[in-house]
Amino acid sequence: MPPSQKNIQNPSRRRFLLGGAIMLGGFLTADVTLRQPQDLRIEKHILPMKKVPEGRELRLVQLSDLHLRTSQGYFERVARKVSALKPDIILLTGDYLEENRNLAGVLKFLRRLRAPAGIFAVQGNWEYWARLEGENLRRQFTRADTTLLLNERRDVQVNGLRLSILGVDYPSPGDQVSRLVKKASSERINLMMSHVPAFNHQLLDKHIDLVLAGHTHGGQVRIPLLPPLYLPRFSGSFVAGFYQAGWAKVPLYVNRGLGTSMLPVRFLCPPEITLFRLVSQKRDHSVAQNNPARIPAPSSIRQSPPR
């Protein structure tokens, strides 16, 4: 090839490669900042329990870590999907706010939610950082028919089932966990909510049937075959999904959350709405047949890491 022609083609090739790299970077940036943070997934789990009579069922929806800024369109879609799941109870595990303290947006979202047996919430670290916590936040949530639990137990009855909801306030200190565990009755289904998954699980006993947590965002950015790049304080080694907590091996579920924190990105870690169907251990054979992968077997549930 003549030198003159070679000199003409090389700059063109470099410009082509540079342009391609810029386009690829632009597509990737748009994907992790626009598409993936709103690539909402619905995770469904069936939990057989001795305390649920045959033929009965309790439908729980867990939402966590909204970090609601201004994306009302996204949260309107979340509310529609929650409604379609027909929950008996909605459980919210903290971090509703962000730096802009968009309490009005949070209340607007909560008013879109419906559950015949109630909506119950606990606080996360962002409520404290935003200084909209405690009794102040409780009064605000009451305006949206949402009960904020501050180291408290609330009893409800739905579909003939007696249920206690135990709400531990952030950061789930041992004395409060112990106090609430003592309030759990063996005659009731006992659900514990904690914003953070890493607390003293040895304080739990066999009266606690399920613990729900959030806080980790599932790591938010996940590189295949590698651990999360970052997990916030009080995450411990918990990332997402089911674990067994403490000596009693209580099922603990860590929700990936709906929003983002620190950086407005998600990568291979989609936001989630979680539906738990609590059924009898003598559940209909058809239910088990249709959802075999959704029943967490002990061998598939990770033991909680030691503290």
Concise description?
With 307 residues, the protein is α/β, with parallel strands linked by helices. It has helices spanning 3-35, 72-84, 103-112, 125-129, 134-142, 174-182, 285-290, and strands spanning 41-49, 57-63, 89-93, 119-122, 146-148, 152-158, 161-168, 189-194, 210-213, 241-245, 250-254, 272-280, 302-303. The protein contains 7 helices and 13 strands.
Helix content: 25-40%
Rounded mean pLDDT is 87
Sequence of strands across the biggest β-sheet = 6-7-8-9-11-10-13
Structural class of the secondary elements?
alpha/beta
Give the H and E element order: HEEHEHEHHEEEHEEEEEHE
What is the terminal separation in angstroms? 68 Å
Overall morphology:
globular
Give the total of beta strands: 13
Largest beta-sheet characterization = 7 strands, mixed
* Rg calculated over all Cα atoms: 22 Å
Low-confidence stretches: 16-25, 284-301, 303-307
Number of helices: 7
Strand content: 15-25%
